Each structure stands twice: as structure tokens, then as C-alpha cells.
Amino acid sequence: MEKVKFTAMKDGDREDYAFLTEHETDYAAKTAERLLAAMVDLDNSLSGYQVTRLGHSLQAATRAWRDGADDDWVVSALLHDIGDIYAPYNHDEYAAAILRPFVREQCAWVVEKHGDFQKLYYAHHVGGNPHARDVYKGHAYFEDCATFCERWDQSSFDPDYPHEGIEFFRAQVERVFARKAYDPAVIRTGERVELTDATIANERNI
Ligand SMILES: [Fe+2]
Ligand SMILES: [Fe+2]
User: DSSP label at 19?
Assistant: First the structure.
């Protein structure tokens, strides 16, 4: 069987759908590979900064790595702006949707809200509300998002920062997207993990 027999979904049979499920599983297994390729496309998006979007993403992930952050955080930092390619008006939600099945709830929330938290640094210059993040005050992950933006996002526009390349992060991205989607042991609802770990950071910065 190379293709299903049906032309409308309601006419498919068990054999058709078993065939498709197998195909979809193979395709899903290559998500990490496609995301890494998409990151390279970020090089062509949104100009005007001193670094490209890819450069910015690599800087953010490198800072996370050098802070001793775990896989969930590093991969979230790497992919947090991937939505810029197709969703310029809700790039944060787009990136969060990609990450949500495979990272801690904490990290997906932070990526989803980072656009509002970033406004703290520039919205007053463009007639926006720098305190847009205040609607989330009291949320369990509020401080995590504030830290994410302060340490890894707003700081990562420096053309002189010596960051790692995309290949450096390949194994981590593959590990995260090889997880079982929506596994409660991955999502860890309500659990907070610090963004920084001084001991691990020391080991990584030798
Ligand atoms: Fe962003
Ligand atoms: Fe960013």
C-alpha cells in the first residue's frame, strides 16, 4: 500500500487508517530535524536588529546553557521566537504550541507569555504598555518569565556575544522532541524548575 484508497475521510477503512498512523509516526519522529532546519530560516526574517533572529535565538539558548539550565529551558530558549516566521502577531503563542507537548508546563507558559513580558523593555518607546505583563501578577510562573526575558531574551541582541552554533543544540532538540507527547512525566504540571543552576553552570563554563 502506497496511498490510502479513499478520497473523503469518511470512506476510509481500518487498513487505510493503520497505514496513515504508521506514516504519521515516522513523520512526527523527524520533528526535531524540521525545527532545526526552520531555525536556519529565521536568518532571513525580521531585519533591523544588530543580529539576525537566528543569531538572537542562538544567543538566548547559549545564555540558558551557560546558566546551567536543563533541556526544557535550553530548547525553549532556542525556539522561543520560531513563530516569527509565520505568526508575526502572535509569535509567542505559535512557539508555545510547538513546544507544549514536549516540555514542562512551566516552560511552555513562559514561552507563550514572553511577548507581553518583553514589553517591559521597549513598549514605552512605541506608545505601548510596558506593564502588559502585570495581568499575570500572582501566577506561579510570573517570576520565571521575568527571569527568562531579563537574562536570556532582552539581552541577546549583541553581535559581539560569542554564542554556540545550531549544531551545538542538535542533541538537546532531538532529545526533547523524542519524548512522548503530553506525557505527564514531561509536562510536570505546576512544577517549577529554576532557570539557573550555579553548579552546572560552573561545569559548563570551564
Ligand atoms: Fe519573542
Ligand atoms: Fe526573543
Answer: H
Which one, of 77, 108, 75, 74, lies nearest residue 94 by Cα? 108
Backbone angles phi, psi at 41, to 5 degrees: -60, -25
Nearest ligand to the C-alpha of residue 61? 2
pLDDT above 70 covers a percentage of the chain that reads: 100
Q: Is pLDDT at 27 greater than 70 in this prediction? A: yes
**Per-domain boundaries in the chain:** 10-204
Contact (CB, 8 A) for 92 and 115: yes
CA of 148 to the centre of ligand 2 (A): 10
Q: How far is the CA of 84 from the centre of ligand 1 (A)?
A: 8
What pTM does this model have? 0.95
CATH fold of 10-204, please? Answer: Hypothetical protein af1432 (1.10.3210)
Q: Residue 108: which of 120, 95, 119 has the closest Cα?
A: 95
Q: Cα 3 to chain center, whole Å? A: 34
Matching residue, cell 551545538? 168
